[in-house]
Amino acid sequence: MKNLMYLLLGIILLISCKKDLAPISGCTDSTATNYNPSAITEDQSCIYFSTTPFVIETPYEFPEMKIPSDNPMTIEGVALGEKLFKDPILSANNTQACIDCHKQNSSFSDPNQFSTGIDDIQGNRNASALINLGWNTSFFWDGRSLTLEEQAFEPVTNTIEMHNTWMNVEIALNSDKEYPFLFKEAFNINYIDSIHVVKAIAQFERSLISTNSKLDRYLRNEEQLTISELNGYVIFNTEKGDCFHCHGTNMFMDNQFHNNGLDTEPFIDLGRAKVTLDVSDNGKFKTPTLRNIEMSAPYMHDGRFATLEEVVEHYDSGGKYSTTVDPLMKKLGVGLQLSNQEKIDLVAYLKTLTDNEFIDSE
């Protein structure tokens, strides 16, 4: 009986550590990375890893980034999120990673009109560029996700994309040689679950900040614009081009949804209305940022325009009428009536939004 009691007592002591303080193999001595001796329990078996804050400085004329209190930015979390973003382990057949549809040299967008999933099935919308996402208030072209964490859940289980289950993902990650330690280091958890996977990916995505384009350097008095670029600047920011209403501020987007006269009714893609079920939202899509627009072709929610010149021609034509077309399309049916040189100047200005450092950095 005594032996049984001692055995039960031993089992209780072994499981008495909090879940986030359980030991990790290879990290039980003072040489461990982020080893925190003050967090060792009395039986010396549980280790807690302290994280390092990832500091985001608010860019010029940007609002402060709102970071969820339950997912603070850390160097460890961002690094883990980047690894997950580039790892095909999240897909059902281990062949496709997030970065395959969000390529860095395309401003983390897809240069193809539609992305192809693991079953060789294509969607019907162009993969959005992932840039300055921490200042977005909704995600996807129709805004169906309100946070980056929520957004990151979808591609894994989407039957067109990675076509996996979160249970399979958890099994794969927990069986991996590296990930258990990396998640312990970033979140102090001993079992990898979907919630912490999307938290890590969201942290990485919030770190994708671009504010060093030629225009930024011009505004900082570090570089000059050409005459053509300056003319384009004026066209963009006046009624002449009328671009600034939806693409104003240094973010070059308004976090709103607009029907910009792409189609007449009935709409093939209802856009925002698929989420709100409000017919007044038919044909409306989220305003994309114009930062790095030169690198994120093709354009519009369905990638119908291959070049910036085609985009300018669309607005110059005035667009097509529908009952939900945005009032900001003031030249509907008339067009902007830009000269050929003005069109060239406007495109030249848009290209000053290219941040080569963001595109090329590893």
Helix amount, in percent? 25-40%
- Summarize the helix and strand pattern as letters: HHHHHHHHHEHEHHH
- CATH superfamily (homologous) name of the largest domain: Cytochrome c-like domain
User: How much of the sequence is in beta strands?
Assistant: under 5%
Gyration radius, to the nearest Å? 25 Å
Q: If classified by CATH, what would the architecture of the largest domain be?
A: Orthogonal Bundle
Structural class label = mainly alpha
Describe the global form.
globular
Low-confidence stretches: 1-45
End-to-end Cα distance, whole Å, is: 63 Å
Largest sheet: number of strands, sense, barrel closure: 2 strands, antiparallel
- The CATH topology of the largest domain, please? Cytochrome Bc1 Complex, Chain D, domain 2
Taken together, the total number of domains comes to 3
Indicate the mean pLDDT: 89
Q: How many strands appear in the DSSP assignment?
A: 2
In CATH's first tier, which class of the largest domain applies?
A: Mainly Alpha
- Spatial arrangement of strands, main beta sheet: 1-2
Number of helices: 13
Short description:
With 362 residues, the protein is mainly alpha-helical. It has 13 helices and 2 strands, in the order αααααααααβαβααα.
Output the keywords:
single chain, 362 residues, mainly alpha, Cytochrome Bc1 Complex, Chain D, domain 2, 3 domains, two-stranded antiparallel sheet, 13 helices
Structure description:
Helices cover 33% and strands 1% of the residues. It is mainly alpha-helical and 362 residues long. The protein folds into three domains: 20-49, no CATH class; 75-206, Cytochrome Bc1 Complex, Chain D, domain 2; 214-360, Cytochrome Bc1 Complex, Chain D, domain 2. The longest helix has 14 residues, at 2-15.
